[in-house]
Structures are given as structure tokens and as C-alpha cells.
Amino acid sequence: MGKIDEQERDQMCFACGKHNPIGLKLEFHEEQDTYRTTFTAGPEHQGYDGIVHGGIVSTLLDEVMARYLYAKGHNAVTARLDVRFKKPTPIGEPLFITGKITGQRGNMVELNGTIELADGIVTAQAKATVAVLED
After folding, report:
1. What secondary structure letter does DSSP report for 88?
2. Torsion sign (Cα): 48, 115, 66, 28
3. Rg (CA), the chain
4. Does domain 29-132 have CATH number 3.40.50.1390?
5. d(CA 99, CA 128)
6. Is residue 124 within 8 Å of residue 61, measured between CB atoms?
7. Which of 32, 61, 67, 119 allows an S-S link to 126, with CB 3.0 to 4.6 Å?
8. Residue 17 has what pLDDT?
């Protein structure tokens, strides 16, 4: 297998890859030390009728936290992810997903993530420990 061009790297990522035909195609930006993305889930993302599948909720939170370190130039992977489902996350409504670094011990970085609705209701929260693989 040949070397992958840097521009093509990770383009098949389920969460953020632009070339993944079934991916979420999330786009991110940093604002005031917080990493942000938005997503509106469709019926193909549901578990129970009208509710985003918990695996998709977890994926959104994992991606906004671990990818924050990747965006800062680190090769990093999630070592631990704890998700708290506070309310059902509805399909068809814009979701505002944020991640924030809360601490670091050596190469292990702690982050918090949140999914909110437009009215500010938090549907899920997460804590992650992300391992930085090189520096």
C-alpha cells in the first residue's frame, strides 16, 4: 500500500471525513478555547423513533474532544470515554457540540464535551482521557 498524501489522510473518517459516503462530515472551529461543531441528525441516525442513537451521540462527543488535540497538531487517540445521557437527543434539530481541555498529566489530556439544543438544553455530557502519542 502506498503512502497516503497528507491532504488525503483521514478523509474516510466516519465523523469528519469528506470522502466517506456514509460519514457525518463534521466541520469544526475553535472559539475561546473551546472546539465546536454542529450537526443535525436525520432518521438514518436514530435509535428509537425520533431519538439519535446513543452510539452516534457518543461519536459526536468523542470526535469533538479527541479531534481538538489533533487540530492542535498532536497525534492523539481516546483512551477513555464516559458519556452521560441526560435527555433524549432529538433527530431533525441542530445540535451544538463542544469540547474543552480541562487538564493534563504527562501525555494524557482530560477533556469535557457537551451536546446542547438551540434552547440551551443539554442532552449529553462526556469526559474523555486522550493519549497524545508523540510530542
Report:
1. P
2. positive
3. 15
4. no
5. 10
6. yes
7. 61
8. 64
Residues 6+ apart with CB under 8 A from 34: 98, 99, 100
pLDDT of residue 22: 65
Q: Name which residue leads in pLDDT, 63 or 7.
A: 63
Rounded CA gap, 45 and 93, in Å? 12
Give the model's pLDDT for residue 6: 44
Name the grid cell of 23. 460519514
Measured CA to CA, the distance from residue 30 to residue 101 in angstroms comes to 12
Cell of 48: 428509537
| Positive or negative torsion for Cα 100, 65, 57, 26 | positive
How many Å apart are CA 56 and CA 66, to the nearest integer? 15
DSSP letter, residue 5: P
Strands (E), the chain: 29-31, 34-40, 76-85, 94-105, 108-116, 122-132
- Give the C-alpha separation, 46 to 66, whole Å: 23
pLDDT at 122: 98
Tell me, what's the pLDDT at 5? Answer: 45
In terms of phi and psi (left: phi > 0; alpha: psi -120 to 50; beta: otherwise), the region of 120 is left
